[in-house]
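Data availability excerpt. The first of two example chains:
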Amino acid sequence: MHPHPSPAAPTSPPTPTAQSWWLATLAAEEAPQLFAIAHEYPETQEGWVAAYGMAFQDRAEVSSTDGDFRTCSASPESALTTFTRLARDEKGVKLHLIWLTPPHGSRPRDNAQP
């Protein structure tokens, strides 16, 4: 008869190093701000989120929620302009730039309305 192996001693998660703390801080400080572009139809009180984006220091990358359109713009505001042009044939639509995360080191932005 073989003896049963002893159960493994529980292991604790590794202790973070100074380097990993520094990298986590760097990643948090340089993370892009998240935003959405939404369509509002005031006459029917309906709306939907058309796209989500990431605002980096030098550009904004945006992807439509239905997955058929991606763009890289100079800023979230210029991405909003692009989506406004794409929606120009929709009667009564109003587009909004909605900030999902605040700028680093400041209070949350006011959600802009064009």
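And the second chain:
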Amino acid sequence: MRDGKQLRSEHADATRAKIVEVARSLFAARGYEAVSLDEIAAAARVTKGAIYHHFANKRDLFRVVYEELAAGIEDRVRRRLARAQDPRERVELAIDAFLE
């Protein structure tokens, strides 16, 4: 059985993930400059204070969004490269995974 501390931690993790997901979508659709933390909070259905609990500012939130995107791309490229031995095929698979 989970205790209160574990439940709060899980809720905090879920809130943070939702903020990052919404921010990613809004940044992609409208650009960094055009999106405010108020808009992210409203779309994520959290308070602005919740955003500041997890992130120092909008730039910090954007950095996390960027790092998660980069990590996802890197993971895709690595998985594809693991399937190929031929250098040409490896390059083609890496480019394909990157552009996906």
